[in-house]
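Postdoc handover notes: sequence design on the structure in folder B. Input tokens:
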């Protein structure tokens, strides 16, 4: 493989390249990212390669999923490093449109998701978020027309929103969820981890430890309410500002009252300092 991955920055170049893949009888997988790639992203690319002959990785920091108070301007952007990393994992094309390409002057169409997008989790704290995600993901899927698209399970609610979007719009693409990739100590890999101070980084381990402990207690038959209350106390006592710690149905993210309402997924979001972290585990 070449040391440099081809880059498309315009729709015509993207379509010509994909047409070449198709003319050669190749299947295509898409891995949507916002760049600042880490080993978790590269694991998505490796998984995509197992499902298709050609892999496209999109790098686009989507402004429509950031609220005015969020970190759009400070979100890490390091295209050259990202491209170098992708050259080592058998990537066939980087799709790197500008904001003007994705949202040209006069752009007036939005996708407004419901269902899992209104589960009272991320949407409760970031009400703008899934409209921006649904719109950009729909554009990426229709631009690239992949046979498969890979999304990480760390953003679990997002994954469920994308799955429903694909079903509802009858998009001819298989949505594949990829397991969370963690550091050796259990912290879920995230582009935002770079914002953590060494002290915050140590405290951040509380999230995964608490999720694992809560899951184990639920499996043993302890009442959900008591387990989640104890988990919430552990997280706040560690120094986090907790947004939520919830047990939900793993398929539709509906609220549950007992393990019998499962399969269950435990999901957490909390802020330490200025950094907001999310994580989840299956029960």
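Designed sequence:
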């Amino acid at each position: 493989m070449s040391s440099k991955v081809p880059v498309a920055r315009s729709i015509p170049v993207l379509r010509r390249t994909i047409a070449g893949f198709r003319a050669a009888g190749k299947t295509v997988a898409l891995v949507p990212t916002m760049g600042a790639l880490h080993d978790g992203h590269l694991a998505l690319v490796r998984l995509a390669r197992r499902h298709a002959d050609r892999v496209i990785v999109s790098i686009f920091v989507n402004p429509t999923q950031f609220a005015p108070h969020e970190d759009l301007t400070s979100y890490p952007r390091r295209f050259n490093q990202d491209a170098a990393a992708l050259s080592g994992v058998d990537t066939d094309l980087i799709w790197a449109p500008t904001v003007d390409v994705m949202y040209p002057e006069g752009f007036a169409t939005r996708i407004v998701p419901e269902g899992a997008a209104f589960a009272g989790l991320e949407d409760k704290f970031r009400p703008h978020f899934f409209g921006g995600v649904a719109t950009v993901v729909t554009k990426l899927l229709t631009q690239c027309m992949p046979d498969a698209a890979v999304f990480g399970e760390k953003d679990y609610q997002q994954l469920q929103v994308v799955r429903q979007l694909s079903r509802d719009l009858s998009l001819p693409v298989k949505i594949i969820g990829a397991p969370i990739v963690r550091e050796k100590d259990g912290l879920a890999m995230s582009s935002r981890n770079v914002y953590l101070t060494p002290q915050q980084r140590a405290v951040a381990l509380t999230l995964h430890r608490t999720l694992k402990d809560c899951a184990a207690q639920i499996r043993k038959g302890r009442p959900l309410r008591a387990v989640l209350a104890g988990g919430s106390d552990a997280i706040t006592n560690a120094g986090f500002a907790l947004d939520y710690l919830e047990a939900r149905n793993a398929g539709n993210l509906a609220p549950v009252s007992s393990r019998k309402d499962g399969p269950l997924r435990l999901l957490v979001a909390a802020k330490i300092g200025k950094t907001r972290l999310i994580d989840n585990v299956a029960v």
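Context for whoever picks this up: Strands lie at 7-8, 28-33, 54-59, 93-95, 148-152, 174-178, 241-249, 264-272, 275-282. Don't rerun without checking with the PI first.
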